[in-house]
Amino acid sequence: MNTRIRTRFATTLLTGVAAVLSMTAAMAADPIKIGFIVKFPGGFFDTLKNGGKTFASSHPDVQLLFGEATSGTDAVGEIAIIESMVTQGVKGIAVTPIDPSVIPALDAAVAAGVKVVLMDNDLPTWKNKTSVVATDNFAGGKLAGQWLATKLAKGSTIGMIAGVPGVPALDARLKGMQEGLGDGYKTVGGNVATGCGSERAVGAAENILTTNPDVAAFYGACSGPAMGAISALSNAGVKPGKVLVVGFDGEPQEFAAIKAGTEAATVVQYPAKIGEYGVQTLYKALKGETVPAFVDTGTGLATIENLAKFQ
Length: 311
Hints:
By secondary structure, the chain is α/β, with parallel strands linked by helices.
């Protein structure tokens, strides 16, 4: 073997060894720890978590650490989880924030070098977030309002049932509905806290029925209030479909209600996309990429005519 061939062979061998060593080092490197925190377990948020798992399953260099508060008002619990995630050494946190009271804990996380992506709803006054990945809730509410305006006569009364007043995402759904309806309609209610649960929403809907017996429709800021309105109408002996019920979330119980004729429509969110894109956006930011300030995961409107495509 002449000198030139030996040199070429050695160079090729060294290059191959270097590549193997580099690959081995990469495989041995610690995974990127990302905290994934939701408001509470079940339904929408389980689907959202599954979206995060989908991203992680195709990225072996990502390790997700999950945490759940106990309810939509358990800010104390969520704060404790945020603090725990920082202690565990996460590089980023993807979180569905309960309310502005969690901001100091998020500020402390950022001060410790942790990047934060908000999922599902924003904290508009908080400036240290990396991005918001969520439904455009105002656009979703507007979509529902525009549809409802095609079904109701001018002058009709619409009962509005809130979720958690003061949460920007939920407030935007009510404002969007009013924008979509346009002028010529009367909206009542909207300020009674239901926690997005159906139990408290029943009472809110019954109060609206008592004071506004001519109500033509109910709009719930989330699926629980819509289901509560359905129960209130049933309790009052109102025939299904006489008073239209429109919800927001597109959960299975709403799809069943649409099939049964007790709910007219629901704004459909895509929680799996929120979870997947939430982790994806955070991952890109941690890799040094520029990410958008807001990632819209889209909305649709499910009715009896198009229900099949959402199931």
